[in-house]
Amino acid sequence: MATARPNHALVSSEDVEGTTVYDKAGEKIGEVERLIIDKVSGRVHYAVVSFGGFMGLGHSHYPLPWDALSYDTSLDGFRTNVSEQQVRDAPEFSDDSWKDRNWERNIHTHYQVEPYWGADI
């Protein structure tokens, strides 16, 4: 991590990018490619995760709701309960998806994570 502050709760975006993502069993499944941040609130809403050959899926990028990840200090990385089947069945993503609230609603429902705007799923 480029600018890690071991005793500080804040972290630079460059420190998050490249952080390993682990499944619920603690197996490495990918890494954070980039963050999607709301311009107005400054809140992180998605982590685009690169799954390099993850479970037979080839090198691909999948946006996961930020709340589908939790930082695990013992792993020095993020842990997720996302399964292979969930990734395979995820709503199709395109560059225009960020403009579509229905897509966002579907992705949060798919990963069983409450939407960041607080609506029921």
Query: Distance between the terminal alpha carbons, to the nearest Å?
Result: 35 Å
The coarse overall form would be: globular
Q: What oligomeric state is this?
A: single chain
Average pLDDT for all residues: 83
Beta-strand residue fraction: 25-35%
**DSSP, total strands:** 6
Question: Can you lay out the helices and strands and say which pair or pack?
Answer:
Blueprint: H1 13-16, E1 20-22, E2 28-37, E3 44-51, E4 60-65, E5 69-72, E6 77-80, H2 84-88, H3 101-110
Parallel strand pairs: 1-6
Antiparallel strand pairs: 1-2, 2-3, 3-4, 5-6
Q: Can you give a write-up of this model?
A:
This protein has 121 residues and is of the alpha+beta class. The chain is built from three helices and six strands, in the order H-E-E-E-E-E-E-H-H. Strands 4-3-2-1-6-5 form a six-stranded mixed beta sheet, with no helix packed on it. A hairpin with an 8-residue loop joins strand 3 and strand 4 (60-65). The longest helix has 10 residues, at 101-110. The radius of gyration is 14 Å and the shape is globular. The model has no long low-confidence stretch (mean pLDDT 83).
Summarize the structure.
The protein is an alpha+beta fold and 121 residues long. The chain is 16% helix and 29% strand.
Question: What descriptive keywords fit this protein?
Answer:
globular, alpha+beta, 121 residues
